[in-house]
């Protein structure tokens, strides 16, 4: 286990997991979003020591057998992102949202709330919201 005070984002990057971006370092941009036991978290605020015994998923783990996940495919197809810096965090937040059991489809407000911790400076968010809606319809 890495040093107790090391942030999981730093540890991930040291392990070659480059999708975990360094953005704001204060939990506001979502560029470092990973899933901890299925919940989207800002890894810049999460101590690596807290990860012991938990399932940590980064974007690198979403593709299986060389095939992109359903969410990755939807983002690639939609053109919802431009520069790509925020894309890993958005994909992980979307993956967490879609994995939650629900009786009704996600509403636009629920999607916006679910993505509120992920900033994108290149696009308006509507194409991203539309991508999440499309993911849900086709999953």
UniProtKB/TrEMBL annotation:
It comes from Escherichia coli. GO terms for molecular function: 2 iron, 2 sulfur cluster binding; metal ion binding; nicotinate dehydrogenase activity. It is an enzyme of class 1 (oxidoreductase). This is Xanthine dehydrogenase iron-sulfur-binding subunit. Residues 58-132 form the [2Fe-2S]-binding domain. The gene is xdhC. Keywords: 2Fe-2S, Iron, Iron-sulfur, Metal-binding, Oxidoreductase. SUPFAM superfamilies: 2Fe-2S ferredoxin-like, CO dehydrogenase ISP C-domain like. Residues 13-48 form the 2Fe-2S ferredoxin-type domain. It comes from the Bacteria. Its EC number is 1.17.1.5.
